[in-house]
Sequence to fold (371 residues):
Amino acid sequence: MKITLVLPIVLSLAVTALLARDLQKTPATVTTQPPPVVPVQPEPVRYSMADCHLHLVDFLQRTDGAAAALRAMTQSGVTDAVVSGMPVVKQWSESEPQQPQYYLEDDARCYWYSATDMLVAREIQSLPEADRQHFHPIICGFNGADRNAVDHVRRMIEWNPGFWQGIGEVMTRHDDLSALTYGETPRANNAALHRIYDLAAELDLPVFVHSNASSVWKREPIYLHEFEEAVTKHPKTKFVWCHAGISRRVDVPTLMQEIDRMLATYSNLSIDISWVLYDTCLVKDGKPAAEWLALFEKYPARFIIGSDKVGRFHDYAPVMQRYYLLLDAMKSETAKRIAHDNVLAILPKQGAVLKPAITPEIRQVVPVLTR
Fold:
């Protein structure tokens, strides 16, 4: 009787042990898609806005899609968006057990990815014509430290004539992203980028440049001269300084004074106040910073707002509508210009088309190999 009772228990324990051993041998399933999200409901629309800084894809070149972006924009009161791809991809290293979703998630490197521009073009061109009018695509898929970069910009325009309306976000000094990206760190005054600035002036394309004013270890604007040299040497090129020259952990106490000086000096410069600038400088203890409000009123035509969303748009509304706090504190005309009109004013009247070459195109000759 006792054997009859004990035997099933022994068999059950044995089977459990075998299953546990097999599960240990089988690697855990790793999710390759972002986790599901719940859309965030927008506030009632109080301002008509234009987004100067929207990445249609993320650091893995994935996207919710241009149609999803447009739905989020419409619900948030955003009529237009300057859209780009993402010029780098976050590598999923062999040593990493989980696929990173963002460039800071692990120590893996990032690499330059030119196909991002074609992904953006395909997404926008898949929309009905009436919907495309809300997007203003710009070219970003190049390494700013490579003198061949201008060839990529020309190629994108040649393949999609009349489509592109700007260049950027040009990634130069960018805190941890610079340290994680393969190759030489681009600088805003690289010889490679001077060629792109010249082409932008020729085609009336604004250039959106991410160029940190300093490093995370310094409080002086030790890199500011790089961006300022670009603006100085290219007076016919329209520049947008993304995030006013700061990013995570970059703290420059004299930043506002530098911006004031530069706006007074360079008529070809506008300031993008998206991303970390909002929480770092513009709003203190839930209230707009008075000194920045004064700067906006002093230069009402020179500041633009953006979401800096990357590929996913479920929480788009609160990112854009948080600007209501600033806009409510401005004069109504200033608020209208900064919220909507300024960014549209720097875009070209039509997409870029390359001018016919004066001389026949010169193609590289493949050498004949001989013994």
About this structure: Confidence is low (pLDDT under 50) at residues 1-33. Residues 2-25 form the longest helix (24 residues). The two ends are 90 Å apart (CA to CA). The CA atoms of residues 63 and 272 lie 23 Å apart.
